[in-house]
Amino acid sequence: MWTLSFINESDFINHVKATIEKYGEKLESFDLKRFNKNIIDPIKLIFDKTVYQSSWEEIVSNEIFRQRDKSNNNDIGYFHQRIFSYIDKCHVPDNGKEGGWDVIYKNPDGITLPDGSVVHTVYVEMKNKHNTMNSASAGKTFIKMQNQLLMDDDCACFLVEAIAQRSQNIKWETTVDKKKMGHRLIRRVSMDQFYSLVTGQEDAFYQMCMVLPSVIQKAVEELDGSIVPHDSVIDEIKALARRQGDEHDNFSIAMAVYMLGFSSYKGFAK
Q1: How far apart are CA 78 and CA 33, in angstroms?
Q2: Spatial separation of the C-alpha atoms in residues 103 and 125, rounded to whole Å
Q3: Has residue 72 got a pLDDT over 70?
Q4: Cα–Cα distance, 114 to 107 (Å, whole number)
């Protein structure tokens, strides 16, 4: 039984599938050539393996995960933003259109803010994490929101953070041109509070999180497993280790790892 009242099941599944497909080339399998494309740091791998008491399989798997993960935040940003295109009274503009806002929420019945103010439109700038903006970026975003308020006196502007420091809907204060600035209609809002506002359901974000794991699993299964990568890196490293002696010998594998970064270095080149 589908339990979310603010988005239907088929829309949610399709949105999850679209997010997975956004992973694109990151879902391609890693072979040794791709693994070492930017030349890994063999000494770091050996320190990590020894200090963390991990196996070579674990260390290689972790490094592959790290390389894949570097750009995945953009894909998760897509998930957080585009889901609102399926939620009533929310609109997700095309990139760069309509002022470049990530989400626009309009409610003809009025939107009540924590201080009792009522507006009819909320313009949203969305961030994955609370610490992703430097001071220059924060100042630029604040000025953008100020300009929106000058053009529309019946709106509020939200900086919505998926990973905020806490659940909040507060006046956003930041530094612009070395001066601390704030406005009651420019607000810093955690994702749970924004879900609550637009859906009218207090724990809407929690409810979404509760169904998400099973929906991702279902989406992966319906994508017929073609997206599941089959990495060959550790097998190729062991094959190199066999040339040194024994693929199960720690030193032989360490030598194979050294050769990924140091094959032309003096001593190693022999």
Answers
A1: 30
A2: 7
A3: no
A4: 16
